[in-house]
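Fold this complex.
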Amino acid sequence: MARVKFLCDADRCIECNACVTACKNEHEVPWGINRRRVVTINDGKPGERSVSMACMHCTDAPCAAVCPVSCFYTTADGVVLHSKDLCIGCGYCFYACPFGAPQYPKVGNFGSRGKMDKCTYCAGGPEADSTPAEYAKYGANRLAEGKLPICAEMCSTKSLLAGDGAIIAEIYKERVMKRGYGSGMWGWKTAYSDSPTG
Amino acid sequence: MPGSISILRFAAFKSLFAAFALLFVLTHPAAAQISFKPTAEAVQEDKLLNALKEGDKISGRVSIPDGNAANLIQPAGRDWRDFQRSKLPWIGGIAILGMLVLLAIFLMVRGRIRVQQGFSGRTILRFNSFERFVHWLTASCFIVLALSGLNVSFGRTLILPLFGPDAFAAMSAWAKLAHNYLAFPFMLGVLIMFLIWIKNNIPGKLDLEWIKQGGGLLSNGKHPPARRFNAGQKGIFWIVIIGGALMSVSGWFLLFPYLPGNVTALQFWTVIHAIIAMLFIAAMLAHIYIGSIGMEGAFDAMGSGEVDVNWAREHHALWVEEQQGKANAPADRVRAVPAE
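Structure:
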């Protein structure tokens, strides 16, 4: 099976935040949690660039490495998912994550961060595919329906790409060749440096 | 014809536009560059990553309310992961197992430290009920905090294979709650211990002498004189106070994330919390050893609060004299045979 990845072509991102909104809507993400966000670097200065960022579904994911209860797993597609039934809300994945992906609902008293929530690459969780139980905890499972993540699917400038890592990297390289510039494959070095092709 | 009119109109607009463009170029020479490169000054991920200093991150601006989401990439997360998975197990393993090995060797070489004169049957009050309450409040919290903390560091490797994921996660969730809530009585206990025992724990000349003689730990029958607390006990006191304070401050920051700042500060304080915890646990193992199996008669001090007079004279000769002087004891008791 293909190894899926996200790629944000920052030279195309217009910071419309549609990916952020679509994600929140698709998965009914709770208030205060953003599985995806758009960060603008050098805002207001010449050469500013906006990057849409979520969980990068790293190779050898740091979150999975530090989780004290080992609640993470990687699917055959290379998507990093976690079990909210096992998660104890300790915050370790948040400390280790290079992309600030893990989010916590502020529930209960001090120190109780609640179950961690993050981008699932629209692939749900350990529950049976497309069940109400899965939807309640992780949101929609578009991958099970043969669809790609909603954020990339509805990106108006096709800045955010999702799919087979090799294919989207090729698309990006073609774009860079044709237009003659590119600000980089944001996060790829950090997320996949251990295995550039994997 | 409408077509020719519109062409005429378009031509008029075109000339007008050209005039404006010329004006713009004349007043803004920079715009006259023929090949305008939209990326000439554009940020490059490679350059930003290479320019990052240790523990730094690439940040920008976000339009959502959560300001912490503005951190785009923080490669330091990988260093933190390396600390948690590679360094901390060694630090903890060496500190805790090393201490257990040392204590086992000490027990084999030195054996249990006996009361040389034997038990006299008469006792003297060493710790009153309030002191004992505070000690055991802190101690019981410490044990739960230590075990639940060690579970976070080592449970996945040692306990998860035994229990299975579901039972282990449920146990860890309760352990985390216990860790979060018992932190407060623990902090209270450390604070009270500091207030009630600080007056007896100021380092002095006697302590130098005690340390020179190795506390009499290795020499049978030799006990350097000490007041209420000898240098070893003072050491334990300061380990608890300083260690407890560091654990409290770092733990407070972890309980209330973002109090110390952003994720970099949180990473720093988790590292402090973990390292101090491992050393603290190792030190407390020695304390537990000497207060129980390591020394005859020592446990009574925190058990019933009444220690045997012979034990007290051997280990705290000057303190016994002070106490008996205070109690207006008969003269022969005041000039009790010193331990040496």
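Residues 194-198 of chain A have pLDDT under 50 and may be disordered.
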